[in-house]
Amino acid sequence: MVKKKRRSMLYIPGNNPAMIQQAGVYGCDAVLLDLEDAVALNQKDAARILVRNMLKTVNFYDTEVCVRVNNFHTPFGLTDLEEIVPLQPDNIRFPKTETVADVKEFMKEVRRIEKEHGIKNPTMTIHVMIETAKGVANVYDIAAADPRIDAITIGGQDLTADMGIIKTPDGVGIDYARKRIVMAGKANDLDVLDTIFADVNDDEGLREETEYIKKIGFAGKALINPRQVDVVHDVFNPTENEVRKAYRVYSEFIKNKKAGIGVFAIDGKMVDAPVVQRAITVLEYAKIDLKEIEKNAG
Ligand SMILES: CC(C)(COP(=O)(O)OP(=O)(O)OC[C@H]1O[C@@H](n2cnc3c(N)ncnc32)[C@H](O)[C@@H]1OP(=O)(O)O)[C@@H](O)C(=O)NCCC(=O)NCCSC(=O)C[C@@](O)(CC(=O)O)C(=O)O
Ligand SMILES: [Mg+2]
Description:
This is HpcH/HpaI aldolase/citrate lyase domain-containing protein. The protein is an alpha/beta fold. Helices cover 45% and strands 15% of the residues. The protein folds into two domains: 8-236, Alpha-Beta Barrel (TIM Barrel); 240-297, no CATH class. It has helices at 17-21, 44-57, 77-84, 100-116, 133-137, 139-143, 156-163, 175-187, 203-215, 229-236, 240-258, 273-285, 290-296, and strands spanning 8-13, 30-34, 64-68, 91-94, 125-130, 149-154, 191-194, 220-223, 264-266, 269-271. Bound molecules: (3S)-citryl-Coenzyme A and magnesium ion.
């Protein structure tokens, strides 16, 4: 089985039936059906009902489906959970997480609702969003707060607002937070996902930002418009040359392992465990099944 990547997660406002209906055909890896900031206060109930009904009826094909609920410090958070948890979307995204206590309170309700609905082996995972200075300060503990958390993400719009700064195209104001969140996520084996890029007409800016966040360790990015999907995939997809090299490294690794050799050279360059691990990551993004390489390596 090839591990599924989340290069692109497209936000869709939860009160827009036409957009949700199309969710499975945009070509993104995941959709984020939003009950939070994309939805006006007087639309919250309508959005919740719509998303609940769409989860029951829409064919999302192989697109991962995540629902972003409202925070518990709003009048909507608990009702969102009561309606959405029983339907077990692939994941629930918990915004503006600031403390371990927030996660514990949230997960207590999730587990209570699952129990009440007789859901014995829940598959739904949790994405925590870090969007305030307090959340950034506590991120190492938050990332480790519950085993069902499988991704952590930064909300750059809210974070800059909380910090009282302008969000500039070079991202300098959120750079420390991005890197701290990456380390907290990696330390707990989580997917680390980046914030949105707000200018849907600036492909070059989107490309530059995506190249940067890929370099510092993010696994993918949230998007707000289907026109952003191709640029982000193009950045995250390895080049043909990278795939060829990774294939060769992994294949040689399997052959050497069988001969009891842990470190070897390809074209004069040392290959050891970290080099193999990086090759595996490239092959995962290229959706190449490692089992096939293992078989071919004899
Ligand atoms: C930005 C814009 C208004 C531009 O409108 P435009 O009209 O110029 O778009 P066009 O390109 O002309 O649309 C062409 C065709 O695509 C369709 N289409 C457009 N967008 C689509 C879409 N998202 N999903 C499906 N379909 C879509 C459209 O319906 C049309 O279809 P059709 O008529 O059939 O041709 C529009 O995209 C939009 O509303 N985006 C979603 C915004 C949103 O969700 N915000 C909340 C999440 S962020 C946040 O909360 C901050 C955060 O929390 C986040 C974090 O970082 O994680 C933090 O703190 O940072
Ligand atoms: Mg936000």
